[in-house]
Amino acid sequence: MDHRDILEKYKSGELELVDALSHFAKKGIEDMGFANIDTDRFHRTGLPEVIYSSGKTTEQVRLIAERMYLKGIDILATRATEEVFEAVKSVVPGAIYNALARTISYKRQERDDGKGYIAVVSAGTSDLPVAEEAVETARFLNNRVETVYDVGVAGIHRLFNKWEIIRNARVIIVVAGMEGALASVVGGLVDKPVIGVPTSIGYGANFQGLSALLSMLNSCASGVSVVNIDNGFGAACQASLINKL
Amino acid sequence: MDHRDILEKYKSGELELVDALSHFAKKGIEDMGFANIDTDRFHRTGLPEVIYSSGKTTEQVRLIAERMYLKGIDILATRATEEVFEAVKSVVPGAIYNALARTISYKRQERDDGKGYIAVVSAGTSDLPVAEEAVETARFLNNRVETVYDVGVAGIHRLFNKWEIIRNARVIIVVAGMEGALASVVGGLVDKPVIGVPTSIGYGANFQGLSALLSMLNSCASGVSVVNIDNGFGAACQASLINKL
Amino acid sequence: MDHRDILEKYKSGELELVDALSHFAKKGIEDMGFANIDTDRFHRTGLPEVIYSSGKTTEQVRLIAERMYLKGIDILATRATEEVFEAVKSVVPGAIYNALARTISYKRQERDDGKGYIAVVSAGTSDLPVAEEAVETARFLNNRVETVYDVGVAGIHRLFNKWEIIRNARVIIVVAGMEGALASVVGGLVDKPVIGVPTSIGYGANFQGLSALLSMLNSCASGVSVVNIDNGFGAACQASLINKL
Amino acid sequence: MDHRDILEKYKSGELELVDALSHFAKKGIEDMGFANIDTDRFHRTGLPEVIYSSGKTTEQVRLIAERMYLKGIDILATRATEEVFEAVKSVVPGAIYNALARTISYKRQERDDGKGYIAVVSAGTSDLPVAEEAVETARFLNNRVETVYDVGVAGIHRLFNKWEIIRNARVIIVVAGMEGALASVVGGLVDKPVIGVPTSIGYGANFQGLSALLSMLNSCASGVSVVNIDNGFGAACQASLINKL
Amino acid sequence: MDHRDILEKYKSGELELVDALSHFAKKGIEDMGFANIDTDRFHRTGLPEVIYSSGKTTEQVRLIAERMYLKGIDILATRATEEVFEAVKSVVPGAIYNALARTISYKRQERDDGKGYIAVVSAGTSDLPVAEEAVETARFLNNRVETVYDVGVAGIHRLFNKWEIIRNARVIIVVAGMEGALASVVGGLVDKPVIGVPTSIGYGANFQGLSALLSMLNSCASGVSVVNIDNGFGAACQASLINKL
Amino acid sequence: MDHRDILEKYKSGELELVDALSHFAKKGIEDMGFANIDTDRFHRTGLPEVIYSSGKTTEQVRLIAERMYLKGIDILATRATEEVFEAVKSVVPGAIYNALARTISYKRQERDDGKGYIAVVSAGTSDLPVAEEAVETARFLNNRVETVYDVGVAGIHRLFNKWEIIRNARVIIVVAGMEGALASVVGGLVDKPVIGVPTSIGYGANFQGLSALLSMLNSCASGVSVVNIDNGFGAACQASLINKL
Amino acid sequence: MDHRDILEKYKSGELELVDALSHFAKKGIEDMGFANIDTDRFHRTGLPEVIYSSGKTTEQVRLIAERMYLKGIDILATRATEEVFEAVKSVVPGAIYNALARTISYKRQERDDGKGYIAVVSAGTSDLPVAEEAVETARFLNNRVETVYDVGVAGIHRLFNKWEIIRNARVIIVVAGMEGALASVVGGLVDKPVIGVPTSIGYGANFQGLSALLSMLNSCASGVSVVNIDNGFGAACQASLINKL
Amino acid sequence: MDHRDILEKYKSGELELVDALSHFAKKGIEDMGFANIDTDRFHRTGLPEVIYSSGKTTEQVRLIAERMYLKGIDILATRATEEVFEAVKSVVPGAIYNALARTISYKRQERDDGKGYIAVVSAGTSDLPVAEEAVETARFLNNRVETVYDVGVAGIHRLFNKWEIIRNARVIIVVAGMEGALASVVGGLVDKPVIGVPTSIGYGANFQGLSALLSMLNSCASGVSVVNIDNGFGAACQASLINKL
Predict the structure, then answer these.
(1) What pTM value is reported for the model?
(2) G121 touches E at CB < 8 Å
């Protein structure tokens, strides 16, 4: 059945929409049995398919990375252990590991596609792994990034110290654990979109980041949106979309 | 102590930074005793001070609205009951009430300051109050808005029916209760920032919107960020900042 | 652009799949602005579009019911108050209200499309509203229904008293609040699929049905699946699909 | 059995400690059957017995207030409705009602027993009922109080505007809902004990104050302790103890 | 099929156990369609069937009470409103209402079947409705009851004041809201079983009794068991079983 | 006492129902002291007794497996580590281990007892362990199974790619973590029962699968029921019952 | 100050009650600096001081056990690892370890002080560690114990198989994980107090025993009380108090 | 731009407050790239910057400690493992490790700056790590500390035994896990501020300290405030501020 036939049958009611659709869906999929690489994703959403390593076996990550490499697709793997990196490196020679961010990246070419830069601001040194995941992701997505680290509200003058970097950014990612107040404070001072990333840093009634998550969701500063706990990757994805508008 | 003295004392260490600051802070505040209107907020953050009516007495809202009106400041009050509207109307003649959105607004002049338009997409008819709060807020902030209502994933072809409106938006607000899957589906199909607004619509294990909130925070589509449950206002604020970049 | 052009452009890559789709999606939607009735749903999923009244205004429900009536579509509205019923009745003369179940129904014709019957079993008298919602829905979907009420495990001999009804059903819906143990007990005794409906009946550490929900999800009897708290409607939908297999 | 006998029997092992105790316990109790007024509490803990009206019938509150009045004990009733106040006023002529704070108070004499004053700082106008409960309680406990209202972090310059009041206090109560960031910001700037009172103000993922509660418990500023949600009364009690040290 | 045939078929494997059972189960049930009164319950468990009024319509409670009355069964209805009482009274002339406890009771004869008495101890005046439900239930079950009210740990000497009543009980019910510490304190001082009843009294992070529930479940005193929040009825049931051992 | 005597005594009231029952209960139990194998379960419920290995010692699993093997009963052990498998293999020579699914199985004979096949659809590669547990269980229960893996809604065209497999199944198991939207999307497109299995895949506000669980329970598609988080086994049990109807 | 003086001063008001008390409190304490052994506990509460090993260092447990041994006090340590046992054994030669229950016990003499026996009933083999903790504790407290294991409601005939043991007990401990329905089923069939022990056995929405805990707290059988999750020790303590009444 | 220019521009409106601020913020920060040491914190808040080791790499802690040491700043690191201590010791020769408290401290000089002493009271031996963290912190902050350990309410006479230490303190820290009742009992007996520290000691429905946290937040004794679970450090910080008033 060629595309014309499908169409005719759909118009005459012989074929359901989804059945018709099922004939068009082959494009943009790299089928590996245990995984279907969405090779069309960048074209469609401006964000490429990325390997979320957690919950996958080392072998699975290696195979996906290899296939992408052979297809000429740039590679970003998040939540990757050192062991996973070694496996990937064996099939993707130029792969680079950021141990703090737990990311593996491989890019054929550096570019800056953004209209401005993304500022990644973090409250404490313990929040760095999440902040670095955001940085790695944003750079992989061809954005310029500036970082302002360890400027939590317990010593708010530290924030003002690097104010120019923050105020001149096109979009700001605020990474904070504990009570996550930094997102509100920054959000109350700038006229740029602020994306909050609550982290699981803290203990006790922090409940693995719930405290910072609720705090940011309830921010009294109105231009703040939030991504999942520890999700530096997701924040960078949205920041990248915004930076390229 | 004039400003020069303050400065000298600060430099010599006689005065703490915050104490010095306290002498400069009078600007941009309209002090009403029970309330301090932040008249500088728009200038600073691109978003004006808005009256969140819930938890305030009718009298308090009326007094704040009146003061803003007299100062020539445009007025938006959210979560306002009909009774509050009547009180405000008595002091702000041109105030308009949107009963579905529960907003009171008063603007001296309509404008379009955005680079594109904001699409507000909602999953079900029951989500309309939240969607309308987003619409009212976005328009108050001088944005053009298009709406696509009742296109939840249980009948996903309804979404495709108005696809052009969604794909051409500069930023998309997705309002959904129950399982909130619409945010992921839209996020997986567009290359624009998507802001999810979980609503408290549903029952049982919905837990007043927790279900949709967690769903959106865990979206497998990576360009999605989230605001608080039922917070159409906050989503519109961030969308407005993005639309004006 | 006619369908042929769309197709050509899609094939040549000028048009994205979803954009192409957007030209085909008009079928099966009754667009009312604030609502899009999915008139194709029954054909597609075996379950018709139903009006979930909660969160909708009386006026909205009335308008949707009227439109469905005029289009010759049978009507089921759940979570409907007496007031909503009065409004619907004014435009749908033959509409019937079940005050316990809070359902409005209107059917042109009674039928039995099932291969057997659905048994609705409830633990206590207080669970009847939910059980009756399941009964009304299952009958609306053209199933035969038998009921066994008030047979909770505190007096387990009551269950055995009506055992024949339960064992001869093709599929069994168990409605229970408090600790919801009835689902496990029934599930451990029959070779038919059991669908558990936890109810919000109880108090204290019942947490509006969470207790029964967790209980049923953790059932040690392995043939039990669960729907949302108080969701008699959803249980009947799945039971109907099973009964017609 | 007189006290000497009890003692002898306790020494000889004939009597258990608690049994011995039971002979000494009559002092400092005003037994009303349904209530035991702890007339010794002020002497023992520096804080008098206070009537928590919620959950008590109007009649019960009236009877307790009357008994205290007749015994010459000053009266503070919290969470009191207007109706309760009318009942109390009928038996305690000089009783005063603060409708915002929902407190009834009756004092024979004003005093200032503190070493300094207590600052009550609130984030938003909607937090006033809780802030006012703290103010009423602190004054009832013979403290001087200064208030700084509506200085939330979304417009942080408002905080600096009244900085002198805050920095000169002996102890500071910070009342805030939503994300409760104000407690951290104040705590990071002063060298006085800060007592945070999370409020239930907000909506959605605020979860009736849980958001602000967790935020304050996880404050990155280290001199902050916390009382229960909306517990202005408790905060004032501890502040009073501290102010009198 | 007579009982003998059933037996034969069961022995030969023609009949399943539960099917066989279903022929014997008619005894001890008063079938009312919407309710099955378990008339055998007292004989079987030492506790009669009791009407839990919440979630039942007034009409349903009236019909059940009437049937029990006509069958000569004593009646206890819990969580009953005044309206329900009026309906019951119209068919059960001697029925008595305890407005604080929200119980309706009707007994043909007073008796004391216990080996000792049950002490009901409550922490605050606001806990009285729950304490009184326990008292009414325990008396209905033919136990002698002594009460010790308003002796919470904030003024622990009040507890010692009535120590003799507590220490001489055969079993002790401790009713407490807020932090529920009274159960631990009593449990650490007596050699009798203590049954804790957490109440929903309190506010904020009390979470409708969760605080007291967790507190009692985690009691460091080891002879303490717990029933559901506000479940004075259940505590009295178990206390009655213990008192009659 | 033979069965006749028991019966006579039960009829005459000398014997309680449960006591009578206790004489009939020996059949269908393989008593091992620490375990009672329910050898009658398959006959009664259509589902055999299965060994849930978690929480049991390796020795216990080995002993149960050995006893089943010697009695000629087919064996399925879930949540089994490699170490447990080695122990089982030493007593059940033909036992097979699926390391991804963590299942041990031993069947004397392959069969297909279903009326159609079960489709197991999973959202991501990380969900495979749960999906494979479903597959192994369904096959053990003599069903034909087809799998569609890695078709999450972030790239919804992948779903349409294998649409025929899904639409032709008799019952569909949807396995998804993160926001679990796949269950709603599939449920909105098919007229077959869909059983959702939320997985614990994800991080942060996923809360070990709570996010996907709530999402599926609140599905706006009405023919969806749900089993416990990661419970591929339970989903397959119910799917098997349905597939054999 | 001798006891007489204290008394005089207390009577004259010179001394507070608690201060007076502090002079009498030395009795019944074995002070070890990091621990105060309550040597009077058995005399006071009928339950001796027991060593809860979790959270203590091996050295601390060893020192406490040694001191008790030297003082001639019988020893029970719960939640003890093998390593702790080795350390205790080095100072308490006759100490015995139950590896399943994780208890160390040392008794000088076996006795039966109960009026009947305690039945410990468990739902599954995986619940044995908790059941065995209850057994060890009950025996340590000089009770006779009978066990009925692996009789969960998925195969309810297994329960009836050992019915006589259950019905003849003076008090029954029911240990169950997953949905914990066994407590309700047993509670609905016996006229003895039932103490439920929820266990953390299960997975997913079991939430470490929360599911079984809520289930038991909400039991529709009214003579059931509950102890903490996995708290076999506490259940045995209360059962022992009841068994000795 | 010198300070005068900044000021002039701020006054003329050319410069925003925060931008002006950014020129003053350099003071009091030791910038290390991944960390900004707040060297002004002690001066500003009376509490020095402390190293929270959890979530930091050993290398990061070592570098921060070294920098502080070289700058002549006293060092306290909390939540430090033995490995971290070894690293710190290599660069800070006089550093001391308290293995129970998991703290590293280094002070040039011992002092007593308090007006009285801080009493640290703990309920059980298992609470010692948290109690010791409080003790170490309080001493580091130049306070005198007295300890009263293992005096939980299950044996309340142990508390009275050391009553004099408690009543003579200027401020009392109560450390307790399980049900945390000790805070209420102490709070009801003293006229000094009580700071409760809930600990994660316990199991089951303790939920990692939630039980004790809620208990303390809901304390019926009114002079009690609370810090985060296991946060001995924070409690000592506030106690120190109070002790120096």
Answers:
(1) 0.94
(2) no
